[in-house]
Write a structure and sequence with these properties.
DoxX-like_oxidoreductase; transmembrane helix; globular; 62% helix; DoxX family protein; 141 residues; mainly alpha
Length: 141
């Protein structure tokens, strides 16, 4: 059962946490790892280094959109390939994310959180909540 009185605030909490996580990861890649260092990492794991800037920008701009609720549920769904890519990169490292090169549970959790946000909606205080239409019926939030 969904408690309709508090569900918008639960969705808001999920949205804020997810948006801040994407922004923090973009910041990490920009300031700590540096774009060149992140590009080198991508090359080491067999991905094209040219993906570094698109990933950083997707995390930064996507995180801002999710945080503010500017079509956030759509953005969460659009960012799933980034999270699933991270999951595939970290999967061989084992379960715990503090394992050498990071484990897979954190990217898996974030992918599920992004999917949940996409399904639940933007919740309270969203700038431009996204609405889904199913067979003519509109679902909001």
């Amino acid at each position: 059962m969904i408690d309709n009185r508090f569900a918008p605030y639960g969705a808001l909490g999920l949205r804020v946490a997810l948006g801040l996580m994407f922004i923090a990861h973009a910041y990490l890649k920009l300031v700590i790892f540096t774009p060149a260092g992140f590009a080198g990492f991508l090359g080491q794991v067999g991905l094209p280094a040219v993906l570094a800037w698109p990933i950083i920008l997707a995390e930064l701009l996507g995180g801002l959109a999710i945080l503010t609720g500017f079509y956030g549920r759509y953005v969460s769904i659009l960012l799933l390939p980034v999270l699933l890519g991270a999951l595939m990169v970290h999967a061989p490292n084992g379960w715990v994310f503090n394992a050498p090169n990071g484990g897979w549970e954190y990217p898996a959790f974030l992918a599920l959180a992004a999917l949940a946000h996409g399904l639940i909606g933007d919740g309270g205080l969203a700038l431009k909540p996204a609405r889904l239409s199913w067979n003519g019926a509109t679902a909001s939030a």
